[in-house]
Amino acid sequence: MADVLLLDHGHIAEIRLNRASARNALSTSLAEELTVAAAAVRDTGVRAVVLSSAAPGAFCVGADLKERDRLTDADFMRQRLVFRRAFTGILHLPVPVVAAVHGYALGGGYELALCCDLIVADESAVVGLPEVRVGIVPGGGGTQLLPRRVGYGVAADLILTGRHVAAAEAVQLGLVDRLVPAGDDLRVATEMATRIAGNSPVAVANARNAIRRGLDVDLAAGLDIEDAAWRATVFSDDRREGVRAFVERRPPNWP
């Protein structure tokens, strides 16, 4: 059985972690399949992606430490390249990605969620970056993505203590974006993706690009990035169709 499933929901693709017997622990093979799934999404023309889990009680518990216990130093380096391709594949998907998180999302599992644009977590969710507790550091983007999401202090708290954070505190700290009742993570994440997919693909892409590029520059440079995004959008066929549809009081048919 495949460790990663790619499901077609029309304008939305769902990438589903499917190694339920190991609570989606990140093995080399799962990471390879995740890279393939992310690459396949690029060729589908979808407008949004949901990253989900088929494992009861877990989104992803992080790296498969049982597998790692058998690796040589050379094996570690080979696996490192595989893992980087998997995380980068999710992070650089060309459309918005919504993570649907329930249960444990730890280490590399939480880093996969951090690679997404939005994180929906249900009340059972527990997140954390506990790598220092087993003698390693986050390697799936956690030391860079988490501070950009929540600031230095909260990120240092999680990364340096390695503590687990339950859902209620996680949403307060900004570690996840939306807290929903237990069992509703996939439904709500899909609803969010559907709403995104209903908007202008050109506008969504340019707005998302402006947000991401603006994170690493000062305000003046960020406003220039926004201006370029505005110009790229306002002269598009999507803008013409969006305004026309509004005036005619009908749903837009995005070109």
Automatic annotation (TrEMBL):
Keywords in alphabetical order: Lipid metabolism, Lyase
Organism superkingdom: Bacteria
Catalytically driven reaction(s): a (3S)-3-hydroxyacyl-CoA = a (2E)-enoyl-CoA + H2O; a 4-saturated-(3S)-3-hydroxyacyl-CoA = a (3E)-enoyl-CoA + H2O
GO MF term list: enoyl-CoA hydratase activity
GO terms classed as biological process: fatty acid beta-oxidation
CDD domains, per database record: crotonase-like (cd06558)
Pfam families: ECH_1 (PF00378)
Enzyme Commission number(s): 4.2.1.17
Enzyme class: lyase
Family per record: Belongs to the enoyl-CoA hydratase/isomerase family.
Name listed for the protein in its UniProt record: enoyl-CoA hydratase
Species assigned in the record: Actinoplanes aureus
